[in-house]
Design a protein that fits this description.
This protein has 170 residues and is mostly helical. It is built from 6 helices and no strands. The protein is extended.
Length: 170
């Protein structure tokens, strides 16, 4: 009997709700006709009130942590793209790795060009790895003070250049 009572009670309120004055047209909020008109209204209001534009990357002074963050993301994207392309090339191109290595050797490229190419390949790997270790230290809650952030950044840059030069010399 209690369930029947609850169903009747809920049913009455559900039927009555659309007829309630709360849901009438006179209480409706007018909608913007389009997103572009809404944006124009927003810009006009900000101009009228002399509000500045939102901060943009062009007004910020470039700092070591900012550049390292951007570079870390860039090297991550470059590495994942490179590995994917290398894997696809290994699947679809004829021949094996040894044949392509022989092709590069037959080009008789100078040692400076070979060293530069090896440096260019090793740099993103070393930078992303060493900066990843820096991020792991941050995950442990270490090195968040501004001087420490700059110091660890310079250490990562120095170690990246040294280790990349060493690997490229092999």
């Amino acid at each position: 009997k209690m369930a029947a009572f609850l169903l009747r009670h809920a049913g009455r309120h559900c039927w009555r709700a659309p007829l309630s004055p709360i849901f009438t047209v006179r209480n409706a909020v007018p909608m913007a006709t389009s997103a572009s008109q809404r944006l124009e209204q927003f810009e006009e209001k900000n101009t009228r009130l002399n509000r500045p534009l939102s901060p943009h990357i062009t007004i910020y002074g470039w700092s070591v942590p900012m550049m390292m963050s951007i570079s870390h993301r860039g090297t991550g994207i470059a590495l994942s793209t490179g590995v994917s392309l290398f894997g696809l090339a290994a699947l679809f191109l004829p021949g094996d790795f040894a044949s392509y290595l022989e092709l590069v050797k037959s080009l008789a490229l100078g040692p400076a060009l070979i060293y530069s190419a090896k440096f260019a390949l090793a740099f993103p790997v070393m930078y992303h790895s060493l900066n990843g270790i820096r991020h792991l230290a941050w995950d442990l809650g270490k090195g968040f003070k501004i001087p420490q952030v700059y110091q660890s950044g310079y250490i990562v840059i120095a170690l990246t250049l040294l280790s990349t030069a060493g690997i490229a010399a092999l």
